[in-house]
């Protein structure tokens, strides 16, 4: 498998960790000794990391490194066998996924997960209602366009012109944008993107990159993203988190990370 | 001609019964991936609840408003049973399909056994209100009135489910959850609440099928739910799990095929004909008649 990047020669050298965000504030996401094993196999191995407010961290690593498993632990789809997850200071290790979402954590999945049989507007409407309708109003009618709030979110991801289209009929890139819109409707502090560019056509990648950049900068979302497109990552990410065999190999600015001999060995070793 | 009309109306009546059972099964399977073999138990509880109320509940009776109250009691009992089963049996077993099947099959055997222990294995004569006794003449054909009641009830349930699906917040959550449960959760929605609700709705419809099945067959037996459940499962497979309309069409189709095959060939061949249709659908359209996709998520 040669799916990792070739490490750059590193003209800047292993510098003095310039990308590290050293805020004294409470990190948006803090993982302490997070581990997950299944039947004796350690899939996620003792990961400790912090992601600061407004930071953009890219999670990379060879296939099978445990990136999606880590996402599942952070978002609550699986329970860790050890360690803890804190979201903006709150221990959410034992919270169900929907409670983490309510506390401001949004995530997307490797396969795009929009609701194909609903229109784009109804998709966002569902997400808006998920935020506003947490009171127990049982028979509150579902407004077909999602009501106020839905249009703003669709504007953000540049999909407002397609509000009446069935989500299943969107191009892959547009589905990805709609997913972002669904997350944004919740006004999250932290979003986890699991390979958002996977399967998106080359022509759509630029626009999707721009949209993700907007979400990060203009909405002030903290982003943790798994991605294989290195050129996209190196542009956007403040720091790279490199995973290998379930463990965190490096967590530093992109240049230093790519120059790290261990990281190079992990990629070249797996690729050989 | 008169035979055809009789067969059509009776087929629709039987289809209505199947729809009442299958709509709940299909919702539960579509949203929760639970094959609910205990669904027949809700039907039996509805049937015996109605029978008991008509005979013993003060204010209820075998006729008129009293019968309506008896049916309400039966449906309430079935709904309560379904809610309890979801909370106490299904919820602790989410995602554990083998255990779910064992537990629900167990319930499907235990509830009829319990009923049999209390009221015996012999068929009990079901009360028949004046209004639905006898026949109606339609183009010189005498059609039992209860067939029309069954059809009316199924149309009413279809309408209510359709309104629930398309007009309420929970309906939207259920539709979205059928397509992608993980994403609904990622949006911050507690999808488990919808699970309980869907189970309760399914239980209510099945219990109503129990009451109306009592009218249709004239008697109730502890195992009535089990035999109807088999055909309801076939309806779910043929109709697919994503569409209420698909479920309704498949229910009517199965009811009609059964009636016509039983009448024009050898009695009993109707069941075989239904299984042949099932095989054909499985061979040609795996997700059922209305299915468009078969995508699955590996999270």
Task: Kindly describe this structure.
The complex is a heterodimer of chains A (272) and B (299). Chain A contains 9 helices and 10 strands. Chain A is of the alpha/beta class. In chain A, the strands form 2 sheets. Chain A has a 6-stranded mixed sheet with strand order 6-7-8-3-9-10, with helices on both faces. In chain A, strand 9 and strand 10 form a beta hairpin. Chain A is globular. The N terminus of chain A is likely disordered. By secondary structure, chain B is mainly α. Chain B has 11 helices and 4 strands; from the N terminus they run ααααβββααααβααα. A two-stranded antiparallel sheet of chain B has the order 1-4. In chain B, helix 1 packs across helix 9 and helix 5 packs antiparallel against helix 8. The longest helix of chain B is centred in the N-terminal third of the chain and has 31 residues. The N and C termini of chain B lie far apart (56 Å). At the A-B interface, helix 1, helix 2, helix 3 and helix 5 of A face helix 6 and helix 7 of B.
């Amino acid at each position: 498998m040669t799916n990792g990047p070739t490490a750059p020669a590193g003209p800047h050298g292993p510098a003095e960790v310039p990308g590290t965000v050293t805020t004294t504030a409470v990190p948006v996401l803090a993982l302490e000794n997070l581990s997950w094993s299944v039947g004796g196999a350690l899939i996620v191995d003792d990961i400790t990391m912090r992601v600061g407010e407004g930071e953009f961290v890219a999670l990379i690593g060879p296939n099978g490194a445990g990136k999606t498993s880590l996402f599942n632990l952070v978002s609550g789809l699986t329970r860790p066998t050890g360690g803890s997850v804190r979201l903006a200071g709150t221990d959410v290790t034992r919270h169900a996924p929907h409670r983490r979402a309510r506390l401001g954590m949004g995530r997307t999945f490797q396969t795009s997960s929009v609701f194909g049989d609903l229109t784009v507007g109804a998709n966002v409407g569902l997400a808006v209602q998920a935020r506003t309708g947490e009171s127990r109003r049982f028979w509150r009618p579902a407004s077909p366009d999602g009501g106020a709030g839905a249009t703003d979110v669709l504007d953000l991801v540049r999909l407002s012109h397609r509000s009446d289209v069935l989500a299943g009929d969107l191009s892959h890139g547009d589905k990805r944008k709609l997913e972002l819109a669904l997350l944004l409707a919740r006004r999250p502090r932290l979003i986890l993107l699991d390979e958002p560019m996977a399967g998106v056509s080359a022509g759509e990648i630029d626009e999707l990159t721009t949209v993700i950049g907007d979400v990060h900068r203009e909405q002030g979302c903290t982003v943790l993203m798994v991605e294989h497109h290195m050129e996209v990552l190196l542009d956007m990410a403040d720091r790279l988190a490199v995973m290998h065999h379930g463990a965190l190999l490096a967590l530093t600015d992109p240049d230093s990370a790519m120059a790290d001999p261990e990281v190079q060995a992990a990629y070249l070793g797996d690729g050989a | 001609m008169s035979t055809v009309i009789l067969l059509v109306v009776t087929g629709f009546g039987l289809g209505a019964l199947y729809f009442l059972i299958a709509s709940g099964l299909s919702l539960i399977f579509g949203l929760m991936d639970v094959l609910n073999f205990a669904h027949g138990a809700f039907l039996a509880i509805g049937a015996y609840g109605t029978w008991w109320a008509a005979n013993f509940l003060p204010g209820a009776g075998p006729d008129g408003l009293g019968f309506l109250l008896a049916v309400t009691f039966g449906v309430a009992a079935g709904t309560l049973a379904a809610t309890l089963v979801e909370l106490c049996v299904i919820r602790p077993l989410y995602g554990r399909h083998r255990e779910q099947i064992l537990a629900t099959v167990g319930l499907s055997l235990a509830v009829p056994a319990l009923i049999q222990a209390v009221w015996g294995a012999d068929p009990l004569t079901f009360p028949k209100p004046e209004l639905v006794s006898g026949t109606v003449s339609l183009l010189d054909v005498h059609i039992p009135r209860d067939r029309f009641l069954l059809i009316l009830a199924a149309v009413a349930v279809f309408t209510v489910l359709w309104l629930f699906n398309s007009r309420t917040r929970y309906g939207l959550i259920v539709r979205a959850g059928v397509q992608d449960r993980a994403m609904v959760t990622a949006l911050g929605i507690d999808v488990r609440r919808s699970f309980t609700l869907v189970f309760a709705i399914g239980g209510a419809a099945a219990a109503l099928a129990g009451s109306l099945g009592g009218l249709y067959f004239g008697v109730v037996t502890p195992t009535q739910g089990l035999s109807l459940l088999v055909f309801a499962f076939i309806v779910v497979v043929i109709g697919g799990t994503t569409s209420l309309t698909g479920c309704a069409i498949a229910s009517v189709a199965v009811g009609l095929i059964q009636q016509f095959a039983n009448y024009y060939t050898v009695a009993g061949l109707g069941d075989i004909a239904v299984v042949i249709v099932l095989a054909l659908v499985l061979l040609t359209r795996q997700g059922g008649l209305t299915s468009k996709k078969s995508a699955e998520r590996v999270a």
